[in-house]
Amino acid sequence: MSESRKLHWERVYSSKDPTEVSWYQGAPTLSLQMIAATGVETGAAVIDVGGGASTLVDNLLKRGYSDVTVLDVASAALQRSRARLGDAAENVTWVEQDILYFEPNRSFKLWHDRAVFHFLTEKSQQRHYVDLLQKAIEPGGYVILATFGPDGPERCSGLPVQRYSTQELCRLLDPAFQLRAQDLEEHKTPGGGVQQFLYTAWQAGV
């Protein structure tokens, strides 16, 4: 595990309330809409990558999803969600791991990632991530990927990021994954700023 990356995110989630970070969403509306549009059944295996303090898991449980995994590099972020969910946290699989070192012991029908992939700025990291998707996603399964769009910020939380257009993502994910949907979101940060996110939905080949 990259110790510096882990320490960075532990500091962020230990020093700030989740509602104070720039990527905070009161409700993950677009993610939920894209997940619903896939038609994935509520009993299917779903993973939220980088979902440590996100409320996506709360919403998935409320909608009846019963096999949810949340992965995050920061234990402080995972602890925030576990405390927020209370007893319901026992119905979730929690994984503390850097995505670049994640070795899943099972496959997933749906993979959701909002704002992890764009922190992988090296070509080798991006290729590794796509290879991981190919290993982890069931045939016919889905990937919901939300990154900073072409007009998004160049840095976030003090770190450089990679902005993407749909065409650039296609070059990385094709032909293993087929683009099914895309949307741009002007995310309003708690501080009053605006960040452009590109949401894309992909389906693995069968």
How is this structure best described in words?
The chain is α/β, with parallel strands linked by helices and 206 residues long. It has a single domain (3-204), classed as Vaccinia Virus protein VP39 (Rossmann fold, 3-Layer(aba) Sandwich), CATH 3.40.50. Helix content is 31%, strand content 29%. It is built from six helices and nine strands. It has a seven-stranded mixed beta sheet, with helices on both faces. Strands 6-7 form a two-stranded antiparallel ribbon. Helix 1 (3-15) packs across helix 4. The longest helix has 14 residues, at 123-136. The model has no long low-confidence stretch (mean pLDDT 93).
Key words describing this protein structure:
206 residues; alpha/beta; Rossmann fold; seven-stranded mixed β-sheet; two-stranded antiparallel sheet
Q: How are the SSEs ordered, and which strands pair?
A:
Blueprint: H1 3-15, H2 29-38, E1 46-49, H3 56-62, E2 68-72, H4 75-85, E3 92-96, E4 108-114, H5 123-136, E5 137-148, E6 155-156, E7 159-160, H6 166-173, E8 177-188, E9 194-204
Task: Please outline what is shown here.
The chain is built from six helices and nine strands, in the order ααβαβαββαβββαββ. It has 206 residues and is of the alpha/beta class.
Per CATH, the class reads Alpha Beta
Along the chain, the helix and strand elements come as HHEHEHEEHEEEHEE
Number of domains: 1
Number of strands: 9
User: Count of helical segments?
Assistant: 6
The percentage of residues in β strands lies in 25-35%
What's the helical proportion of residues?
Answer: 25-40%
Name the CATH superfamily assignment.
Vaccinia Virus protein VP39
The overall pLDDT, averaged over residues, is: 93
Q: What is the CATH topology assignment? A: Rossmann fold
Uncertain segments of ≥5 residues (pLDDT<50)? none
Main sheet attributes: strand count, strand direction, barrel closure? 7 strands, mixed
Describe the strand arrangement of the main beta sheet, using strand numbers.
Answer: 3-2-1-4-5-9-8
